[in-house]
Design brief:
The complex is a heterodimer of chains A (377) and B (375).
Chain A (H helix, E strand, L loop, with lengths): L2 H17 L1 H21 L7 E7 L4 H11 L4 E6 L3 H9 L5 E5 L3 H6 L3 E9 L3 H27 L11 E8 L6 H23 L1 H8 L1 H7 L4 H30 L8 H26 L2 H18 L12 H7 L3 H15 L3 H30 L1
Parallel strand pairs in A: 1-2, 1-3
Antiparallel strand pairs in A: 3-4
Chain B lengths: L1 H16 L2 H21 L7 E7 L4 H11 L4 E5 L4 H9 L5 E5 L3 H6 L4 E8 L3 H31 L7 E9 L6 H32 L1 H7 L4 H30 L8 H25 L3 H17 L12 H6 L4 H15 L3 H29 L1
Parallel strand pairs in B: 1-2, 1-3
Antiparallel strand pairs in B: 3-4
Helix pairs in contact in B: 1-9, 2-7, 2-9, 7-9, 7-10, 7-11, 7-13, 9-10, 10-11, 10-13, 10-14, 13-14
The chains are: A alpha/beta (377), B alpha/beta (375).
């Protein structure tokens, strides 16, 4: 390892970057634009679910049930329907996501102290939204049942008209359950990983394709110097991307940054080195830009997006797929960024994730140096 | 004319499929990815990791804890001894929630006072947190009802019937709310879009970079013929991909195919028309393969997120909803989900087919025009 030769490669590579301002612009502009777009638009919240009621009972009891729904922040009352055709119509036209059907004998059965069925019709084609809506519905119904029990027990001899169990939820880190606080740090990590792999995956493949690699072979530069020299300018761009992304998250989206800024950028740097090296490894093995870009997209973008826990919780996946997520570096980075931003935890809790990132960076950078050395020989 | 198109087509096929690694990437990887992502993509919240901090250690507190351990929504992973241990579980994401029962729980319960318990929820994943709070409150409310009635039984010596509302959920179109049915067709659409976009966006710019485009220019070929010849192999590959991946969906994931297979093929053809057009357009405006790839990515990422694949379009701001009207993936998702899950036909899907055709023709025209200029 000779610093002078390393520096020469780094300078050559940064000249490449500087002479291609449109690519540089894309590398800096894309993350900004994406964060802007996605930060404002993406939400998994199911709020203000439009619902209509077919109240066949029309009694004070049925109106009391309805009041429980209208009082909830999760539901928006959109009127009533009077027959089955109209019910079908509102679901098909997506005017309502939930229709409550209260049968005529509702009040009579409640007064007779028997279970009274109520139907909840939801559009199941988006299964996620549908099961969330049914969950909220069930929550409201259980609360209503509690009220009925207390009211009916009050008249019994020796009863205490107060609830027996009082469960108080306390939500940490994100008390308002703001979806943005969850999405923005995750998407930040995903975008950075993608940009890093995209930036480098083509650089070495380009040299092979153009035949300039042979020229590099004839120089005294060593594989390690070549690889690390090529990494350096892209690491600079990647860290600049990260500064922009963190600033946007804090000042534009008001995501609380509770942990250490230094730690955040350190793990960002480690992650960057790993993914940049992954791009170099891909291009060394592919030696062709078309193949390199395909592999880079497929091996970084989709896993980072779907297997990192950014939107889909890893705990819900089957065990075999969970095992695969352990080799996706974005998994650790997403966990780290969320941990530092929202939980404000430090190295004491986060060291396993950091360790994995370090190992990943070392292994991949080492592999790309070894393979370059092989190809050069 | 056909002869010239055929020549370009053959050349393009060869240059793409010559490399065995490239054959792997195009033909085998999409199948593997469908297998992995088909399992990964689900927003259902089940088996939430729960820690139980029981500082009362009485039969009553254990009975409350049993309500949570017995639920299919919660997996009890740990019984921390003290508050610090409980907080560590949350900090390290080993548990998404902690049920904390303080000393005196049983005393309050027996003394007729409201007995308090706490549920500490990790809010950093807001989606899971909402689920946890909701289901915990359902469990608590149901249990509270039993406790209240139990008190009456003990004091009055007789059971007291009470009325209750019995919820009967009816989910239309997807009765068991299987999220795989909803997401796997989406994964298919995404993979096909990614592969076809990437291949075409690199196709012309590669010749520009290698300098072979000049050689093509001196041949008598016309731009339209060149573009068609460039497109055709990728259309074939795209079709092959849809076929293979759809088979995985049908036979591995048991996704029902309720609609017509022919219509699905027609929809795929229309969809490929638009993605190939977009890919070619990117290829003609880019100078280097790196630029082409960045631009493709820049197009694909929002196209994927704004298509309704994961995030419901209805929740997005009006401007974005408006923007997503130009997104071919949005229409193809409606087509592929509609045909797979609802079994609907052209009588309902014609607007989507028309939209895809219009987008495809517009971008292809642009690509040809643009290519003409660079010639």
């Amino acid at each position: 390892m000779n610093l002078r030769r390393f520096w020469a490669v780094a300078r050559k590579e940064s000249l490449h970057v500087r002479r291609d301002p449109s690519s540089l612009g894309l590398a800096l502009g894309i993350p900004m634009l994406m964060l802007l777009m996605f930060g404002y638009t993406l939400t998994l919240d199911v709020d203000h679910v439009p619902f209509v009621v077919w109240d066949q009972s029309g009694t004070s009891q049925s109106r009391a049930l309805l009041a429980h729904f209208t009082a909830s922040r999760y539901f928006d009352f959109r009127g009533t329907v009077e027959n089955y055709g109209a019910l079908e119509h509102v679901i098909d036209d997506r005017d309502a996501s939930l229709v409550l059907v209260i049968p005529p004998e509702f009040a009579r059965r409640l007064d007779a102290r028997r279970p009274a069925p109520v139907q909840a019709v939801v559009d199941g084609s988006d299964s996620n939204t549908a099961s969330i809506i049914l969950g909220y519905t069930l929550g409201i119904i259980s609360g209503f049942n509690q009220d009925i029990t207390l009211a009916q027990v009050r008249r019994a001899p020796g009863a205490i008209p107060s609830p027996a169990l009082d469960l108080r939820p306390r939500i940490w880190f994100n008390p308002d359950l703001e979806s943005r606080n969850f999405i923005v740090p995750g998407i930040m990590a995903v975008i950075m990983g993608l940009i890093a792999a995209l930036l480098t995956s083509l650089t070495i493949a380009r040299e092979w394709e153009r035949g300039t690699m042979e020229q590099l072979i004839s120089t005294p530069v060593k594989p390690a110097e070549l690889i690390l020299g090529k990494l350096l300018p892209y690491l600079g761009i990647g860290m600049l991307d990260m500064v922009i992304a963190v600033l946007m998250a804090v000042f534009l989206f008001h995501v609380p940054l509770r942990g250490s800024v230094l730690l955040l950028f350190s793990v960002g740097g480690i992650f960057m080195v790993g993914t940049l090296a992954q791009g170099i490894l891909i291009s060394t093995l592919a030696r062709q830009q078309l193949l390199a870009s395909q592999v880079a997209m497929i091996s970084t973008f989709l896993p980072a997006f779907l297997l990192s826990g950014f939107a889909f919780a890893i705990g819900n996946m089957p065990v075999a797929v969970q095992a695969i997520t352990y080799i996706v570096p974005a998994r650790y980075f997403v966990a780290l960024v969320k941990g530092i931003f929202l939980r404000g935890v430090g190295i004491a809790t986060l060291w396993p994730d950091i360790l994995f990132l370090v190992i990943f960076a070392l292994v991949v950078a080492g592999a790309s140096i070894v393979f370059t050395a092989k190809k050069l020989r | 004319m056909w002869e010239r198109i055929y020549t370009v087509l053959r050349k393009e096929f060869r240059s793409v499929l010559r490399d065995p690694r490239m054959r792997m990437v195009i033909l085998v990887l999409p199948v593997i990815q469908t297998l992995i992502f088909g399992y990964a993509v689900s927003l259902d919240v089940r088996h939430v990791h729960l820690g139980i901090l029981d500082r009362d250690q009485t039969p009553a507190s254990r009975a409350l804890a049993a309500r949570f351990t017995g639920s299919s929504y919660f997996d009890v992973v740990a019984f921390p001894r003290d508050e610090a241990g409980a907080h560590r579980l949350i900090d390290a994401s080993d548990a998404a929630a902690i049920l904390q029962i303080d000393a005196g729980y049983e005393g309050d319960l027996k003394g007729g006072r409201p007995a308090a318990a706490q549920l500490i929820v990790d809010g950093s994943d807001s989606n899971t947190a909402r689920f946890v709070v909701n289901y915990a409150s359902v469990i608590a409310a149901t249990y509270d009802n039993e406790l209240v009635l139990d008190r009456v039984l003990r004091r009055a010596g007789q059971t007291l019937p009470v009325g209750s509302v019995d919820l009967q959920p009816r989910a239309w179109f997807n009765a068991d709310l299987e999220s795989r049915n909803y997401y796997v067709p989406g994964v298919i659409a995404n993979l096909v879009m990614l592969v076809s976009l990437m291949l075409t966006s690199m196709s012309i710019v590669r010749e520009k970079e290698a300098g072979t485009i000049e050689q093509i220019m001196v041949t008598p070929i016309r731009p339209v013929e060149f573009i068609l010849g460039k497109c055709a192999p990728f259309a074939v590959i795209g079709f092959l991909n849809v076929g293979m991946v759809a088979l995985v969906g049908l036979y591995w994931f048991d996704i029902p195919l309720r609609g017509s297979f022919a219509l699905l093929s027609l929809g795929t053809a229309f969809f490929l028309l638009s993605t190939l057009g977009i890919g070619l357009f990117i290829s003609t405006v880019s100078e280097t393969q790196q630029q082409a790839m960045m631009t493709t990515f820049f197009f694909f990422f929002p196209a994927m997120l704004f298509s309704g694949f994961i995030f419901p379009i209805a929740n997005m701001p009006a401007v974005i909803q408006w923007l997503s009207l130009g997104d071919p993936l949005r229409y193809f998702l409606i087509i592929i989900r509609g045909i797979f899950l609802k079994g609907i036909g052209l009588e309902l899907l014609w607007p989507q087919f028309t939209a895809l055709l219009v987008i495809g023709l517009i971008v292809l025209t642009f690509a040809v025009k643009r290519f003409h200029k660079t010639l």
